[in-house]
Amino acid sequence: MCLRVTNDVVISDKMESEHKGEMTNCIYSSLKCRGCRCALGKVIHSAPSRLALIRSIFLLYKANINCYILNSSSLVKASTLTFDQKPLRQSMNEVRQQFEAQLEQMSRIKNRLVDRSVTSNMVN
What we know:
Residues 89-116 form a coiled coil. By secondary structure, the chain is an alpha+beta fold. The chain has one helix at 88-123, and strands at 9-11, 16-17, 27-33, 39-46, 58-60, 66-69, 74-77.
């Protein structure tokens, strides 16, 4: 799962829906490699509430992806690698906390600007 992908990943304009399996009642677009046109995964646009956390998340097929390993300059199948993974709910909670902290900071800045504006208008 990724929050974003590079320009080498093409997001299909065609919306598809799933009627069985884990993604029942989901609407998604397919992801393909710009170079080889290989199917890379899906991005969910609409999903039932039980899958709400994966809306707008890029779901990738590890079996179809190659990874370039920087320290060894080698190319390997993603399916042969293990990634440190946090549970999705934990990751989403962390992102939510970051957004809430940024919103609070922006609110404090806005209040300071409003206070300055009011003070400035009172002086004039």
